[in-house]
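Re-run with default settings, no changes from the original entry. Doing this only to confirm the output is reproducible before filing.
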Amino acid sequence: MADTRYRRGKNYSADMAAFARMMSMDNASQLELLQARLGQALREEVTDRQRQMLFLYYAQGLNMREIAQALGVERSTVSRTMKRGEDRLRRCLQYSGDKLLTQAIPRKRPGKRH
């Protein structure tokens, strides 16, 4: 039997487009939840030094040599510290990911500044 999925025409492509839109909305909410949980893991699971180096690397865009210069440490120290922090986050999200994704996130009330 020939594969007919490519012969379904406009109806098939319209259905797939609607499905893709629906899935992207679902993914957006899951991504938002995962980002919130990653922030929680960053606050609770890594040390202050690991958090500082990860922030400089990922948020500020500094490379390891620049971070080492800014903090007055060796580049190898930055590399080891970041690796340990990333490993802690990975373990946290790997082993607690399902729990983190199902817990309710405290929502900010509209109009209030935090």
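Confidence is low (pLDDT under 50) at residues 104-114. The chain has four helices and no strands.
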